[in-house]
Amino acid sequence: MGFKTLDDMDLAGKRVLTRVDVNAPVHDGVVTDDTRLRAIAPTIRDILAHGGKPILLAHFDRPKGKVVPSMSLSQIRPALEAALGVPVEFVEECVGEAAEKASQKLAPGRALLCENTRFHPGEEANDPAFAAELAKLGDVYCNDAFSAAHRAHASTEGVTFYLPSCAGRLMEAELKALEKALTAPERPVIAVVGGAKVSTKLDLLGNLISKVDQLVVGGAMANTFLLAQGAQIGKSLAEPDMLDTARDILAKAGKAGCEIILPSDVVAAEAFAANAPHVVVPATQTPDGSMILDAGPDSVAELARRFEGAKTLVWNGPLGAFELTPFDAATNAAALKAAELTRAGELLTVAGGGDTVAALNASGAAKDFSFISTAGGAFLEWLEGKTLPGVAALSR
């Protein structure tokens, strides 16, 4: 790996300026899901165990450079304290005299949470002067927010010019999992990509066909590929203006030695609704008045066989309308098969993306996957082969 971790840093007596993601859902001032808060606990505990003083930087929502009281991180503090298991102090600024004094006076065994970095326009502008002010709060910089690593902001990229920098435990785990999945994977590698539109995942598909051995295209995206091959798809969601692009992707995949796998049979219904009357038909023969809402049982059986022959699986996007019963069947069955192979030590499974995480959680398979990223945009940009500024900065 081309970056330092907490293990490479002398933290004793040092203020460790730590970029975290605490964008937890809040209702009436109370955190309703502390998953992201608990995820940073290993980093904070390690910093404290090595004698460091964690000074936490984070953003919350989109205040666009202005102070918005409803977006204050003060409302996160009680839940953060509970999740970390250590006292968390709060300072109503992230730069300036008050923040500097709070960072200097922080007692051992405690953490300090600074106010929303996005209350300042210099954060998203990656203003060097603002980054330099942030740097005054620490002696060492630690980035534990992979989810914000695709943004070149002052607290994710700019501050690394002023302090010795490293990755936190969550960032380290994410990067190691991603490296195992695509950078240096055990082959064969199979990728599952679902979603509604080919047009939103062109970069992703273009990068994956050069990295994986087999690419499963599911969801409504698959409809466009089927239509491009002359299939009858009824009134299914598709992008007719992307047919040439789909054919181009198929051709490039062939040249790259990547096999693209489309559904062989589908589940079609006349209405987009839970428990709508439905039929299983060949993927090329959807009735005129029906729409494809899921992959069929033969397609699922073929996926199971493919998974059994693979060593690495990367997953982004569901195979059907997973939010509607019973059109979640293909996604659930494929996810549970991947989980079974992961438990047996036969398959490395890495997944990410909002719908993907929701679908894997709903199926009950998430707990057995090797790694599930909650990073959203950063995970997708990594799949697209893009350089993530917050990660690249740690290798400076």
Question: What features would you describe in this structure?
Answer:
With 396 residues, the chain is α/β, with parallel strands linked by helices. It has helices at 35-39, 41-49, 77-84, 97-105, 121-124, 128-135, 169-183, 202-208, 219-228, 243-256, 297-308, 329-343, 354-363, 377-383, 389-392; strands spanning 15-19, 26-27, 30-31, 53-57, 88-91, 111-114, 140-143, 165-167, 189-193, 214-217, 232-233, 259-261, 265-269, 278-282, 285-286, 291-295, 312-316, 348-352, 371-373. The strands form five sheets. A six-stranded parallel sheet has the order 5-6-4-1-7-8, with helices on both faces. A six-stranded parallel sheet has the order 12-10-9-17-18-19, sandwiched between helices. Helix 13 (354-363) links the parallel strand 18 (348-352) and strand 19. The longest helix is centred in the middle third of the chain and has 15 residues, at 169-183.
